[in-house]
């Protein structure tokens, strides 16, 4: 089974989805976390709550609304089809966008906490030295939250590797396109093919275990 | 000769309720000023207003011909453009940078000769490559002072720089601060709780 075309294809789709979600979220997450950590604006609590919603909402709820948004019957979906000839439902791109929305709190929360815990005197000292906010961000703040950055990356990647509900709702189960490991595992169980199911399960277990071990090792070394 | 003029008012929220900090003063070049007063009277707030880190409610701050803050015109010069150095209570040394990198970061253009000179003046030889996490309190204070001088600022602001230092080490470090003030030849303003320290170091003592 391991090494079979189906298995490799499914794992490649899963890995691709996790990798691209993590990269996109790191790029989006850093500025968002900065504004949430240091910004003081009206509606901040509502924005924070909205970003955290995927942690408490069943993925099917989010998936349902995303699927509605993608539908050519509705405004956003119709706009994409008319001007870009693009249908996101049941496509890898559609699943990727849904995965980015769904995994947002796993990236943003550790980054925001890391930034908020740094003494404000670091930023202020840098400003009084004539350094801009961008220079301060890249040379003073980011290097001092390395642990939070690695935690955010590991959490997001591990969460995406196990994504199930949202992928099933938005992407279905199309081999080589939207079929990910957790859905393949479910399929194999339904077919009473436990050996194949076990191989998917073991691989996902190992990836999650490695990700969490990395996070705990970083936190331990920061405590010492 | 340039002087620093301050005439500001700021509402403060303290444990004893709302308070108004009102401050009017002119400080001449070369002066070492000690700001004293009880906790919560606004000493640090005053320093932060000078640095541009806290905005006054009303008033005016100017240095020479340059206006830093003016409520009427709405001008509030960013901290980056005031050419001051601020030494924080916790020293705010960047943990990701070595002693040498911390000092160099304060310069607008890297100037190795000045960094070496400051390392010699403050006895930091052999510590250039060490990260702040491995330094003692006294060493951190000397690095923070060296870093504060690296860009040759016009004004040196010191927010209780000795509060985290053991009593027996204070006299030596007070001398280091005076050395820094003389090196710059500009204006230095230090917040302290210690009246004896203020008497020893200040050309003038301002009680809030």
Could you provide a short overview of the structure?
With 224 residues, chain A is mainly α.
Order of neighbouring strands in the sheet with most strands of chain B: 2-1-4-5-6
| Mean pLDDT level of chain B | 90
CATH level 4 superfamily of chain B:
P-loop containing nucleotide triphosphate hydrolases
Distance between the termini of chain B: 26 Å
Radius of gyration of chain B: 17 Å
Arithmetic mean of pLDDT of chain A: 90
Structural class of chain B: alpha/beta
CATH architecture of chain A: Orthogonal Bundle
Number of domains of chain A: 1
Indicate the proportion of strand residues of chain A. Answer: under 5%
- Tell me the CATH architecture of chain B: 3-Layer(aba) Sandwich
What is the total domain count of chain B?
1
Please bin the fraction of helical residues of chain B. Answer: 25-40%
The biggest sheet of chain A, with number of strands, parallel, antiparallel or mixed sense and barrel status, is: none
The global form of chain A is globular
What is the CATH fold-level name of chain A? MetI-like fold
- At the fold tier of CATH, the topology name of chain B is Rossmann fold
How does this structure look, described?
The complex is a heterodimer of chains A (224) and B (208). Chain A is mainly α. Chain A has a single domain, classed as Orthogonal Bundle (MetI-like fold), CATH 1.10.3720. Chain A has eleven helices and no strands. Chain A has helices at residues 5-38, 44-56, 59-70, 75-84, 92-117, 120-128, 133-141, 146-161, 165-171, 181-190, 194-223. The relative contact order of chain A is 0.15. Chain B is α/β, with parallel strands linked by helices. In chain B, β8, α5 and β9 (187-191) form a beta-alpha-beta unit. In chain B, α3 (112-121) runs antiparallel to α4 (137-149). The radius of gyration of chain B is 17 Å and the shape is globular. The interface between A and B is medium-sized, with 16 and 23 residues.
